[in-house]
Amino acid sequence: MELTQSPIPQKSISFSSSSPFTHRENTLRESDRSLSLGSLSISTAVSDDNIFIAGDAEQEDENAAADDLPSLSDDVDKFLSILSSLGDSPAIVPDLPDISIERFAALIEKDISKYESGSADDHHSPSFLNSLDRASKLTAALTPFSSDPHYLQALNHTSAVLHHAMSFLEDDFHSLLLSSPSSPTRLRSIATTMISSGYETECSQVFLISRRNALESSVSEQGFEKISIDDVQRTPWESLEHQIVAWTKSFRHALSISFPQERNLCNEVFRSHRAIADGIFHNLARGILIQLLDFAEAIAMAKRSAEKLFKVLDMYEALRDMIPKLEDLFVSPDSSDGEESYGNLTAEMSAVQRRLGEAIVAMFCDLESSIKSETVKMPLLGGAVHPLTRHVMNYLKHACEYKNTLEQVFRDHRRMDRSTSGSFDEERGDGGRTGGGSGGGRNSNPLLRQLVKVTDLLHNNMEGKAKLYKDLALSNIFMMNNGRYIVQKIKGSEEFNQLLGDTWCRKLSADLRQYHKNYQRETWSKVLACFKDEGLQSKGSVLKPVLKDRFRCFNTMFEEILKTQSAWIVSDYQLQSELRVSVSAVIVPAYRSFLARFSQYLDPGRQTEKYIKFGPEDLEARIDELFDGNPLSLLRRK
């Protein structure tokens, strides 16, 4: 009879979950040829009588029972050895062991059916995988002889069985990758079998898809969700803050934990195929990294404002810290295949890092602009620390926690300025103050120069606001409050203090002492004038009317000062104490001396009570009410 040459089953990227192999309707016919490949004669011709097409089903079952997989495998191996000895262009086609091949394929198919039905669970056993490897070699060995009808029939059968087996292994491979990736031995056995059977593409695709899903899930578990650049531009900053926190956590987790785990898994599963392992991992990592980098780039492109600085710094640091980890993941001492991927990804990450750095510089410029534009025309009640001072100094203190990062950012920015303009304006933003612990610190450290510029702008802004007060004494209290707040914030931060150094703080402290002197002169010089001897005596006698007027003036001025300045605010306890002590040190001794010299000239009784309202101890107690921010304190004491 004439055989129809049916097409050999072809591989596909994605297998069907069902077997493409269907058992033949025709049963094998008993052959009178020995099943032992050892007695085969190469010169034996192939005839229609040798083709095992049909036979009695009962006889087939008996023959199948007589043969087991090891003996059939031995027959197949002998046949493969014969084919191998013929070379690439055999002149004679050897006899085909139809029955052995047919039964060998049938046993494999039977095992697969058991595994698929769940009635057996040893499909990772070496014997089963070895059988598939043998079937793959058999298919490859039969292919050159496919023009022969006998070989074509055997080829169709073994190809279909092999395809069915690979479909089964693909499903199993996928399941293991999702459920048991910590079992690399089983995964490696399947991968090795699929690759050696010519199914490298299918194996790689299954691994890539399965682990990409797992990687994306691990990123999502850290809180980050993929978002487009357009959506980033439209999202309110409050929402983006949470996204950035999640991004930073996810990015660090991916580079330090997830990627190394995937790298190890790839190396273990494809231990004998390093190029495949490298290619799969590079594709996996790049896909996830691009998603993460797209978000970082979108943040760098978003509208800039000073409030965004610290979250962007967190992203910048994450990129800076994680870039060195790429080399261990991508570059292998045994292969140069990963160097190109490593170079490309490093370049992309560095580019995003630079753009974030430029955004950081712009945000500092935005802080400068916000200080310059703060031109409120109403003075702050009580001369307290201005909200702008609190905001800027807390901002700078927080920024100094990123000291090393910001130094790097501004240094890189200065280099870029030099490369684009050919020079760099070292005096840009010079506010007149100096900072840094060493002589050339300001010009050598761009962050220091930036901090000095911002603090100088703030100081100048406060001087402008101080001029809004009609009372010069209150104006000086305002400058003392804000100046002390600035100094305390600098000294309270180790990084901030290291950057600006003692020189800058000493200069500002000298300004504070001058404000203090100005306050005392404006407030208490007129009070002290009441205690002068000039004009109190004439021809050796005390002029009582003048003396009474002196006491009356002192009482009026002192009570007015108490009433006014008890409402003034000095929130820094140390500064408040210093001011009170300094006032007491000047006023109380002078008053005590004045009383000792002249109180005797007042008539005892009502006259003394009328003009001498305060004792020295009373003055001290009342002075301690100054700068409480409470205008009613004096009334309560009365």
From TrEMBL:
Q: Which GO terms describe its biological process?
A: exocytosis; protein transport
Q: Where is the composition biased (Gly residues)?
A: 432-442
Gene3D superfamilies cross-referenced by the UniProt entry: Exocyst complex component Exo70
Instruction: Mark out the compositionally biased spans (Low complexity).
Output: 1-21
Q: Where is the Exocyst complex subunit Exo70 C-terminal domain?
A: 247-625
* SUPFAM superfamilies membership: Cullin repeat-like
Protein transport: is it a keyword of this entry? yes
Q: List keywords of the entry alphabetically.
A: Exocytosis, Protein transport, Transport
Top-level taxon: Eukaryota
The record's similarity note reads:
Belongs to the EXO70 family.
This protein's name: Exocyst subunit Exo70 family protein
